[in-house]
Specification:
This protein has 132 residues and is mainly beta. 14% of the residues lie in helices and 42% in strands. The chain has one domain: Sandwich (Immunoglobulin-like).
Length: 132
């Protein structure tokens, strides 16, 4: 009886986990800046992957990572996104910003496009510039 109960629970857990699993793809990289200054201990990093195809509409965010910074530059990031959200012919870009207590310290100022349809995605290096 215990074996039947154990097998039933195992099958049920397997079915539940397969229903909740969404296909995921990842985009990894690091954020850096050229200034030789340390970040404040309370600084936060936000990195976003966005669909920037339409010039006259807001960008659509596919993935975002934000949180406190641990350490100094380069700052690693890891974005998970659903590959089903990637549309043929669309343009995608990654951007980053570093803030402290809501005040912007650094931001990416260049367009950092990424080809999400590539067979293998190389790690991305995002440069952010200091806000004066």
């Amino acid at each position: 009886m215990k074996k039947i109960l154990l097998l039933s629970l195992t099958a049920l857990l397997g079915a539940c986990s397969s229903m909740n699993s969404t296909p995921k793809a990842t985009l990894d990289g690091e954020v850096y800046y050229l200034q030789r200054i340390a970040l404040p201990p309370t600084a936060t990093l936000e990195v976003s992957l966005q669909d920037v195809s339409l010039a006259d509409a807001p960008a659509v965010t596919l993935a975002k990572q934000s949180g406190p910074i641990k350490g100094q530059v380069p700052l690693p990031f890891h974005l998970n996104y659903n590959p089903a959200d990637v549309k043929p012919g669309h343009t995608y870009a990654v951007s980053a910003r570093i803030e402290e207590d809501g005040k912007l310290l650094f931001i990416s100022t260049e367009h950092n496009s990424v080809d999400l349809n590539a067979k293998t995605l190389q790690p991305i290096r995002l440069r952010v510039d200091q806000v004066r």
